[in-house]
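Q: Given only this backbone (332 positions), what sequence would you predict?
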């Protein structure tokens, strides 16, 4: 820095990083407001918006009725009118109640209006399992939304992305869906007080390696990094790719990593059939087939509704041991 001072990292959590992103958005742009179930007086079901109602008032932080279709539709209307709404849906499972609004309205209006009606809307929702919330609160359905043209789909997995993805998402003229894995909210670490923009168009190499590519996103990133440590102890150097943006996929980053390592494991907490992992695997087969020294491996959740019982839930989810086994199958 010009004044000779050094930026010092501060201890924070994923939850607090998301809150600071919302606070900055509300503070610096009067068009921004937050709406959703329990985001105001309760502080959000997962505590992300705690204190924002007291700071910005009920016009900027709005509690809504329990009607996802209704308040997502209101957010679309506000975006069409020139505002910058941030709509919080409690869990991804509940977003299915607003699927008509997201698919048939938010994603299509710019195209159907010949470019006249942009919908600069951000929708945040919690995704994923591992918290004993059973089958109506725990699934990973972001791959469904990554199927839809006309929207951008983000999956912040680090403190930096939790803190800095919201600003460029709000600047995007298209609807942006942000999927926050519930297991990440309590993750803590140090974060520099920087305002550097986050690149929403490219995947990130979270750990370099030369023997195998571990391609993942969201809540599966910590497991993949842990697996890379275990593989390193066995003499296998794993490169960990965080997709970050699920639509549009950074196909070039995937191909470059596979060309470097010649082996790939795709880790996705969603169900295997028709999953984002299936799409990534298909792209590798289409674009990088001759770079592969072994078939692509996929590690996904068991194809069952997510169980409530902890041991059954753990058995249904991809675990580090599953990823390690898949990596050994690929390279051995």
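A: Predicted residues:
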């Amino acid at each position: 820095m010009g004044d000779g001072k050094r930026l010092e990292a501060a201890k924070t959590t994923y939850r607090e990083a998301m809150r600071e992103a919302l606070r900055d958005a509300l503070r610096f742009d009067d068009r921004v407001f937050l709406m959703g179930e329990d985001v105001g007086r309760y502080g959000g079901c997962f505590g992300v918006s705690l204190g924002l109602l007291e700071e910005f008032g009920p016009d900027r932080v709005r509690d809504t009725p329990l009607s996802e279709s209704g308040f997502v539709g209101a957010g679309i209307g506000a975006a069409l009118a020139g505002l910058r709404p941030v709509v919080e849906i409690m869990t991804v499972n509940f977003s299915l109640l607003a699927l008509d609004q997201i698919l048939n309205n938010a994603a299509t209006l710019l195209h159907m209006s010949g470019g006249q009606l942009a919908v600069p809307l951000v929708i945040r929702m919690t995704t994923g399992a591992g918290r004993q919330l059973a089958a109506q609160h725990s699934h990973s359905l972001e791959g469904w939304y990554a199927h839809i043209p006309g929207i951008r789909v983000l999956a912040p997995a680090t403190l930096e992305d939790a803190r800095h993805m919201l600003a460029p998402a709000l600047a995007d003229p298209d609807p942006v869906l942000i999927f926050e894995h519930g297991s990440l909210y309590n993750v803590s670490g140090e974060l520099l007080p920087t305002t550097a923009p986050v690149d929403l168009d490219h995947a990130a190499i979270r750990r370099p390696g030369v023997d195998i590519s571990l391609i993942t996103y969201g809540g599966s990133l910590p497991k993949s990094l842990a697996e890379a440590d275990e593989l390193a102890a066995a003499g296998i150097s794993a490169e960990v790719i965080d997709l970050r943006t699920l639509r549009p996929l950074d196909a070039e980053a995937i191909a470059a990593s596979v060309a470097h390592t010649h082996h790939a494991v795709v880790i996705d907490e969603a169900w295997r059939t028709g999953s984002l992992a299936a799409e990534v695997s298909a792209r590798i087969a289409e674009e990088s087939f001759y770079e592969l020294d072994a078939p692509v491996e996929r590690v996904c959740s068991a194809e069952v509704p997510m169980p409530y019982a902890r041991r059954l839930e753990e058995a249904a989810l991809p675990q580090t041991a599953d990823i390690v086994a898949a990596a050994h199958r690929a390279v051995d």
